Amino acid sequence: MERVDKIESLTPNSRNVNIVAKVVSKSEPRSVGSQYDQSQHQLAESLIADETGAIQLVLWDENINKVNEGDTVKISNAFVKVFRGKMQLNLGRYGKLEITDEELSNVNVENN
Predict the structure, then answer these.
(1) Residue 112: what pLDDT?
(2) Around Cβ 75, how many Cβ atoms within 10 Å?
(3) Are 55 and 48 contacting, i.e. CB atoms less than 8 angstroms apart?
(4) Can you name the residues that pair with 82 across neighbouring β-strands?
(5) CB of 38 closer than 8 Å to CB of 67
(6) CA–CA distance from 79 to each of 57, 70, 92, 102 (Å)?
(7) What is the mean pLDDT of each run of 10 residues along the chain (112 residues)?
(8) Three-class DSSP category at 64
(9) Which of 97, 96, 43 is nearest to 67 (CA)?
(10) CA atoms of 10 and 74, how far apart (whole Å)
């Protein structure tokens, strides 16, 4: 089993992040233009939490529909970036997102 990080230990420079967390909420998707190829993409933000804290997870395109409130997600090889003063978790090109059956009962949404 690979290393699993805790949300409270993430920093703005965290890379190669592996997390198991519960989806607390998910925004409605919105269309954004890509700065790279001028095409439209769908973007949604989801708040995920483990027992140590919560962080915003950015979901693009096909990943949006994979995730529902109440799901437990296993995220690997993600990275943190700071957007408008808050840390966000991004999957980037190499990140992976899976839904897992693991039960996370006590999540901490206060420490965001």
Answers:
(1) 77
(2) 22
(3) yes
(4) 87
(5) no
(6) 10, 23, 7, 22
(7) 88 97 97 84 96 96 95 97 95 94 86 80
(8) helix
(9) 97
(10) 16
